[in-house]
Amino acid sequence: MKNLFFLFITFLVLKSEDSFITQYEYGQMLYNNPRGIGCVHCHGKDGSGALIAKYKEDGKTKSLRGPNIRNKSIKDLKKSLFKRHKVMPTYFLTDSEIEALAYFLSNKGD
Length: 110
Prior knowledge:
By secondary structure, the protein is of the alpha+beta class. It has a single domain (22-107), classed as Cytochrome Bc1 Complex, Chain D, domain 2 (Orthogonal Bundle). Helix content is 47%, strand content 12%. The protein has five helices and two strands. Strands 1-2 form a two-stranded antiparallel ribbon. Helix 2 (23-32) crosses helix 5 (95-107). The radius of gyration is 19 Å and the shape is elongated. It starts with a helix and ends with a helix.
């Protein structure tokens, strides 16, 4: 019984204090390559948006840009990630993954 108690306490201590990677690093990893094409390709290195493509329509040059997502709340990120988009792929991220992405974006230095 004493050994079981020791294992349980060890598990709690390791789980709460020692993590293989930080939430920032996990969010960064997901941002760069969540499951397929990374957010970085359309939203830029810092989430402020990036040029995806230029094209001509009716003789005019137009641009397709990824929107700025740096100041999005977790609620807004979840809403956007679960919504079908014409251009953005669906990632099927978990709540904890979205929280890590939000943490990374809100703590990303310029």
